[in-house]
Amino acid sequence: MSILAVGSIAFDTIKTPFGTAESILGGSLTYFSLAASHFTDVKLVAVVGEDFGEEQLAAFAGRPIDFAGLERAAGKTFRWGGEYNLNLNSRETLFTELNVFGDFHPRLSAAQREASTVFLANIHPALQHEVLDQIDRPRLTAVDTMNLWIERERDAVLELLRRVDLVLLSDEEARLLSGEIQLPRAGRKILEMGARQLIVKKGENGALFFSPQERFFCPAHPVEDVVDPTGAGDAFAGGLIGYLDHAASWENPPLRAAMICGAALASFGVEDFSPRRLALLNRREIAERIEAIRGLTQVPRVPLWQTGGTG
Amino acid sequence: MSILAVGSIAFDTIKTPFGTAESILGGSLTYFSLAASHFTDVKLVAVVGEDFGEEQLAAFAGRPIDFAGLERAAGKTFRWGGEYNLNLNSRETLFTELNVFGDFHPRLSAAQREASTVFLANIHPALQHEVLDQIDRPRLTAVDTMNLWIERERDAVLELLRRVDLVLLSDEEARLLSGEIQLPRAGRKILEMGARQLIVKKGENGALFFSPQERFFCPAHPVEDVVDPTGAGDAFAGGLIGYLDHAASWENPPLRAAMICGAALASFGVEDFSPRRLALLNRREIAERIEAIRGLTQVPRVPLWQTGGTG
């Protein structure tokens, strides 16, 4: 089993009320693949520039991540800068430099096309479509996107929803796409727009799953010292999709369990600047965090009106 | 079993993006007692003015709510006006007229002092202390408060925390009281300040329980048509405390189950202006909603790395 994952590798500059980090390794695919690599193999497809070297590659060392699909182009790697508010729950983009991503077109090898799962991390929706055009029918396809594409490339995003099995959006993106303010309505509307399954990510407030048959809510781990929320959504996707790929051969791949795995990886991701923490995790601490998150919400049953009561 | 509940009965004027309601029945005690009355008997203690009459009393008709402690004073009933933002997740107070609450001092009868549970809904903390001074040791005491008292009567609020078994705060209030922005830290700090058990209410984002031994997260029901969030926190407290009083004779009163009952009553409360919906509920619909909320988060187990995996 393996995941073909396409997205961005970047240098991020991040300001939070507690500190600043300049030109650190980031990008949706970086966080995703490190998180997913704890459950399955990842074949990544992305482009970097001449400024991406051994130092950056070292962050992935020892992880089952295949770099055969990493294209090196003349010029600089994608760069993004963002600044968080005091609550760390909203941020402003300070700059976006596409650089080598401006001319990128993913071309998949035979091995990549055979991956059991395909994850399209946040990149231009035209590139996401180009990937879907090149693959046969994998077991699972999932897509993430961002506000910018919902605003500028709405039709391409809507078509994507209908081409994949699972859509991941932040709460803000779900509101923007649906035109509905209340998330339970937004979720229903996005299913009506053609999404088969939807997960709305709410950061520290957990994540909601919507399908025509089911609603599920997964809490976030109550992290006491959030250092940098960047990449939390991508790490969530990595834990989720990584687990689903790992479980793809089982009779009923447990989606609820997969979301808890996503929440666990996201919670580790926010404990440090850069994806460093994600790379260094071991199975024992991941399993403990998963059990802690699951344990947060379990209620065996609610015994009602056993002793008479009134009303 | 019964709850002695002290708090406000009010006329509310409420503006939401979807409509306005003028001088409707409201107040923390109104929402609390109607919600709690589905699980146990409520003896309320409050004051109203000459403008409170049969029409308002009719809203409580048929519920096991004892009005012996309702004082009628010369003048007007407490009045509050508020306006919600577009997301219905924050509001501005437009006016507060204390009226008959200005001179109120609760005096408890012998029957009231014997209640198995005491709930102090949001009123001036000096009045909450006056109630605690008059009671013997009930099985459970719980208190709610608001930003205004945390800002103006901080010492009295801090002393209250230490006098009761369970403290309920909104997320905003927990941040204000603790000086901590991140809720997991805020919760820990409020325990350090002397609270024995704390519930932080996050509206549509659920509620978090903190004790020295435990954390529990209870989701909110994903209501698709929120009409008016006023009183949701009080209805939550009513379901929670009502259930705990109902269960007080059991060996292990199930706090997690009680929070789900609180979330269920809160979700009904927001479906209409005024507490009308809460008064008309039947046990079948309450039980169904409780099971729906419980079902939102249940995950039997997370099978991990059964088939090899990597990392």
Brief characterization of the structure:
By secondary structure, the first copy, chain A, is of the alpha/beta class.
Topology:
The structure is a homodimer of 311-residue chains.
Chain A: E1 2-6, E2 10-16, E3 19-26, H1 28-36, E4 41-48, H2 54-57, E5 65-72, E6 78-84, E7 91-97, H3 110-113, E8 117-120, H4 125-134, E9 140-144, H5 147-152, H6 154-163, E10 166-170, H7 171-178, H8 183-192, E11 198-201, E12 207-210, E13 215-218, H9 232-246, H10 255-269, H11 276-279, H12 283-295
Parallel strand pairs in A: 1-4, 1-8, 2-6, 4-5, 8-9, 9-10, 10-11
Antiparallel strand pairs in A: 2-3, 6-7, 11-12, 12-13
Helix pairs in contact in A: 1-9, 4-6, 7-8, 9-10, 10-12
Highlighted features:
24% strand, 13 strands, four-stranded mixed beta sheet, nine-stranded mixed beta sheet, disordered C terminus, UDP-N-acetylmuramoyl-L-alanine:D-glutamate ligase, 12 helices, 311 residues, alpha/beta, homodimer
